[in-house]
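User: quick one, fold this
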Amino acid sequence: MSPRLTALIAMRQDVAALALPADVRARLDAVCDVPDQVVDDFRRPEARKALARTDVLISGWGCPEVDASVLADAPRLRAVMHAAGSVKHVLTPEVWGRGITVSSAAPANAAPVADYTLAAIHLSAKRAFRTAGEYRAGRPRDLTVSPTTGLLGRTVGVVGASKIGRLVLERLSGAGVRLLVHDPFLDAAGAEGLGARLVGLDELLAGSDIVSLHAPLLPATRHLIDARALGLMRDGAVLINTARGGLVDTEALAGHCSAGRIDAVLDVTEPEPLPPGHLLLTLPNVLVTPHIAGAMGTEVRLLGAFAVAEAERFAAGDPLLGEVRAEDLPRIA
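Assistant:
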């Protein structure tokens, strides 16, 4: 029988309370020996002592960076189960270089983001944000018979067939909309399997009533939606960004939205947060939310439960569902 694993929880205390409530923590305790401490600073003597006997690190929001110096204190470390989305700002390349298995709870975080996006799509199609402002100002409009409202028969373009992008496409399938998708790593057959037609970015922007961004922020995708790209969008179109703020040229978007030509729903911005009084925060046809689309509050337990399930699979020698390989890093968020 293999020796029992020892796990260490590394995240903020408040995050640990939400991600690992009693029932989820009990599952972790069933497969690993887990010290009572929650670590948020690897430099402390007690943290270094705990690292020396750690086989599995359960990381999350507030976990300090795991770099070569941390790895030197963790000679037994075999796996990192990240109870959050992106691992890029937590784990350095040395982790993969040492052959440590890495898993991310991004699949669990995808569902809340997709649900937020779907809500934004439906509300945008009804011009809810623009008309709510008019209603508050005492200028209610009856758009019941307006040909510019409603989702049925519209075209929705999804940029990025990521975990979230795929969920959005799946949730829209059968909703009476035409679906377009752009992703350089997707082929026509794969797009068809998602109920969409694979097109170039320019064709998607020009042909969509609603454009939803789900691409990773990479050097090649920074300001993917710039002034030229925004100019391709049809009048009355809506841009939704729940991915990364840097995908969009903020000032170019502000210009198009202030002219009333397009609407926007932004859960992420560049910079983040936007400075008080920024034009995008004042426009009636723009909704800006403070990066809330992903798991939050009671939903954070979804991330912890996923990470613990991965620890269970790792202990049993089973394949992981959220494994992040070194070769994946250049094309994921």
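User: anything notable?
Assistant: The chain has a mean pLDDT of 96.
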